[in-house]
Every structure is written in structure tokens, then in C-alpha cells.
Amino acid sequence: MALLVAGCSGGASAPSAVDEAPPAPTLELAPGNGAKDVSPVGPFTATAVNGKIVNAVLNNSEGEQLGGTIAPDGASWTANGKLGYGKTYTLAVTAQGASGPAITQQSTFSTVSPENQSYVSMNPLDGQTVGIGQPLAFYFSGDAPAPDKARAEEAIKIQTEPAVEGAFYWFNSREVHWRPKEYWKPGTKVSINIDVYGRDLGNGSWGQEDRTATITIGDAVVLKADGASHQMTIEKNGQLLRTMPVSLGKPSFPSNNGVHVVTEHHPKKVMDSSTYGLPVEAGGYVTEVEWAVRISNGGEFLHAAPWSVGDQGRRNVSHGCINMSDADAKWIFDLVKKGDVVEITNSGGPNLRSWDGFGDWQVPWDQWAQGNK
Question: What's the rounded Cα separation, in Å, for the pair 294 and 137?
């Protein structure tokens, strides 16, 4: 009997799948092709997907090439620095995938051409050493609309070492000051970065130029002039150096009470009362003085007054200035620096206005911190 052997037939093996080719790289450029009124501060970037950036060139319409940096992994590129106002640029980027040919993509765009550019000046200036009463003052130029105050403050960056509590306060639509809550601590380093270029400051105003400054706070020099005792004390870093006789403003022209800040030095200065609204024929004067130190814009100075030496320490006879002998005035002139503090009390006059010179300390901190916006 024949044995029938049933054969088992297994299914045939499926052919191996063909490996798919890696996807081609793609690029995303910013700003996109045809973009207009782009801020010259960017960002200007390129990003690669499924590949690496191997080359990137950014040129303006004059053929000038601007630098950029490809990330270590090749996934992105970023322009270095800022572009110009009112120019046309072309960004050409090449990316290579895992296989296949490289691809190149371009974007041509134009930057904004603002009608109004605002320059920001400052006081103090870079590298200066100033006194403990010095505020940081910033002035937006008048050939452009006044900026939006919040945007302007955002563009002014202030760092201090050690850190201090401080705030901005607007004196008008173009002038803003920053000061700490209390007098500066001697030795404080202040770094200022006015980052306005390429910024829309609002109201049709754009920043014209960035500026930086490093300021040092020097010794704490504080002069205290008392209109009742007719004496002035001079302290340096909390130590009393001298007490000297002085004469302040007479009752008809009293000195202003309050915290004054030194702003200028003049070895010789012609004092003309007409510049402060008092003509000679109305009891004014035109007199040259020596060793003049300005402490307000309203005409208050520390200066030599040899004609009033007999009154110094006894009565107030000036038109608002602090009169001293020649020797004392020269000693003060050599001692004080921009930003040092002169506190006047018992003058019989009004309080110094906050906007008169650097009368910033006349504004109480709670009010100052509100910003006067």
C-alpha cells in the first residue's frame, strides 16, 4: 500500500522593502521674500529642516556683505549686528540634506525708512566720575516727535553694581531722569545702554543711534549751608572736613532751600542778573567772579565774593548765591565735582523746584516712583 505523503508547502518570503530616500531639506528664511518696512534690528534668520545650512550670504543692494553665524549643528543661521534704515537686502542660504543635491533659497526684503529719527543725549557722559547726587538724565531730540514714554523707558537699560532701587521720572515729553531712592553709594558702577536704533519709539519717532556709557560714583561730598547760622559744613564720606562762614541770598533775593546738585565749574564767570530776569536798572548786576560752581539753572552758584567777606558768617547779602572768601571758594572749587550735593536750609526762601538744574531730590520718592507719565 503506497503511502501518500502530503507535502507541506510554506509561503514564500516577502521581498525586502526598498529603503525610502531621505526627505529633501527645506529652508525657512525670515523675513520672508518681498517683506517691506522691516526693522533693521531683525531678527534675520534661516532655519533648515532635514538638512544643514552650509552657506549663507546677506548682501545689501550696494553689494556690501554682512556677517552671520551658522549654528554648530547647522540647523540655523543668524545675522550678526544690525542693518541700515531704508535699504534693500538679499539673503541667500544653501542647505545640504543627507543625500541628493543641495538647495538654495533667497529672500529679498527692504528695511523701514523712518521720516523722523530721534537722537538721545545723556548726562553724565561715558567715563565720568560723579557725585552721589547725580541723576542719570536722558534727552530725546526735538527734530522728531516726542516718544511714547513706556517704549522710551524700555529702550534705556541701566545696571548698577551693587544693585540699587531706582526709577524713571519724566520732566517733560522729551526729558526723563533715572535716580536711586537714596543718594548713590560711593564706588557704585553704573552701566547705561541706550538701545534705540531700529526701535519704533511710538508717535512716528524711531531711534537714531545706540549709545553706551559706564559711570563711576566717586566720594560722597556733601555741603550743608545754613542760612540762619551763616555757616557751611563740608563732609567727605561722612567725615567733617571744614566749617566755613558764608553769606546766602538776602531777604529780597533769598536762596532756595533744598537739595542742590553741582553741575558746572567756571574758574571765572560773568554773573549777569538779566539772564535770570533781573535787569541792572531794577537792582541787578553784571559782575565777574572767580571759582564759580553752579548748583541750579536759576542762577545759584558757590563763588568767591571778596566784597562780602565782612558779612560772611554774619548776614545774608547775596542775590541767591553762596558767597565765600577767595581762599574758601578756591578750596571748594578744587574739592567738589559734578554730582556732589549742596543742601541749603533756613534760607528764608522757597524750596528749589525739581526742574531747576538737578532738583531731582526735591521730589519725594513715592511721587518719583510713579514716573510722572
Answer: 17
Q: Which residues, listed in sequence order, are joined to residue 226 by a DSSP beta bridge?
A: 231, 345
Look up the pTM and report it. 0.87
Alpha-carbon distance 364 to 370, whole Å?
10
C-alpha 325 chain-centroid distance:
39
| Residues forming the active site | 303, 321
Please provide residue 286's backbone torsions phi and psi, each rounded to the nearest 5 degrees: -135, 105
* DSSP secondary structure letters along 291-331: EEEE--TTS-EEEE-GGGTTTTTT---BSSSEEE-HHHHHH
What are the cell numbers at 284? 541787578
Low-confidence ranges of the chain (pLDDT < 50): 1-13, 15-17
- pLDDT of amino acid 279: 76
- Give me the domains of the chain, ranges plus CATH numbers: 26-110 (2.60.40.3780), 117-217 (2.60.40.3710), 221-362 (2.40.440.10)
368 phi and psi angles, rounded to 5 deg? -60, -45
What are the residue ranges of helices labelled H in the chain? Answer: 149-155, 326-335, 365-368
Find the distance separating the first CA and the last CA of the chain, reported in whole Å.
Answer: 115
Cα 31 to Cα 43: distance, rounded to the nearest angstrom = 8
